[in-house]
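Today's session is about reading a structure prediction critically. Students often jump straight to the picture, but the first step is always the sequence itself: look for stretches that repeat, for charged clusters, for runs of hydrophobic residues. Only then move on to the predicted structure, which in these notes is written as discrete structure tokens rather than atom positions. Here is the chain we will use throughout the hour.
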Amino acid sequence: MNRPVAYDITRLATRVLNHTPNGIDRVDSAFAHHFLGSVSDAQFAMMMTLRGASVIAPAAAADVVNGIFVHWGEDEDPDADESYRRIVAWISGGSPELKTAQRVARGRTGQASGVVRWIGQHGFPVGRSPAATLPQGARYLNVSQFPLWIPSYFRWLKQRPDVKGVFFVHDLLPIENPEYFPKAEYARHLRRLANLAEFGAAAIVTTEVVKEALTRHLAPLGRAKMPILVASIPVAPVFSERAPLRPELLGTPYFLVCGTIEPRKNHLLLLHVWRELVRRDGATAPKLALIGARGWENENVVDLLERCRAIGDHVIEASGLSTPSLKALLSGARALLMPSFAEGFGLPVAEALAAGTPVIASDIPAFRESGGGCITAISPIDGEKWLETIRAFAAPHSPERRASMAQVERYAGPSWDGYFARIEAFLDSL
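Below is the predicted structure for this chain, in token form.
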């Protein structure tokens, strides 16, 4: 990297109040570790402080980046993860009292004390002005889209035209599919785009699907020719590690679905499929673990989770899993299920394929691209086809699953070294 990089950790600093990372968090954390992994004259951390955008002390930035990683349990053995142990007990039939109505959530403590400790050590940071502090030709890098809807945070870039602002745009879904989001998110995402057009020198996206949408929306803002790098996201190394399957996961066929419980993830289809599976197959029906926190506008899904007796013994809702625990569950699953209506990338798809687990996913452009042609694709509205495919994959010695495994073996995702080499070359080229 020939240019100094100022990496923004504002959003990452807020994640001490979250049990585990979502997709954006994983990407943000990986970038932070790469660009702030060691103290050097070419690395700077930025953060929203009491004075707005500020360059903060390296020690404070390192404490945020490393502390969040530990807080999420990213290096924790699954056997030390309470949520993992309870899910395994439920899958194996050893804990029959865990019905769907009971939510399994990670038993973390000390989030508030972690915030107090950090403030006690570093104070409420004031930091230094980026306009006055950053060296000539630096690159400002924001990977989280936070707080891209607030123009005042980025006005310092106007004072320093030599500093190029580069923003990671994860998707345009709140604009292109507003029906799946809280009403206010449409206007907020429009402000993100307007600020990107005004303050951004370039953008990074994960798929050609997102690049096409971003280019289309930037054109009316006068930025149709903004440089945009398309780079597929690698997965955390733990997903590619091969280890013997845990024996406690081999007895009962089960499936996973990963993602926040929100309308576009289409959990409702899967719950209706499972009700029908139980009606047809009774106690021999496979099990389903919903891995993810509750999001917004999900009342129908929550009603089924909390009140549908038919699926009570066959569906469990869990949040707060550590990444190693998620990988362990993926490795033993018959498949990952992703029936989303819309996605910008779909990181769980790449994680499952890297772990050697088949993926049954919606036949949508983002999954076709991120899955590299290695997924079993079904329309997100074809409930009967989903039921038939899940039933087939659950069967012992399933030929359908064996054929899917052959697809998975062809999957070759990007490496982090190659990925960051592309990112750095792009930053240098601006």
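Discussion point for the tutorial: Confidence is low (pLDDT under 50) at residues 107-112.
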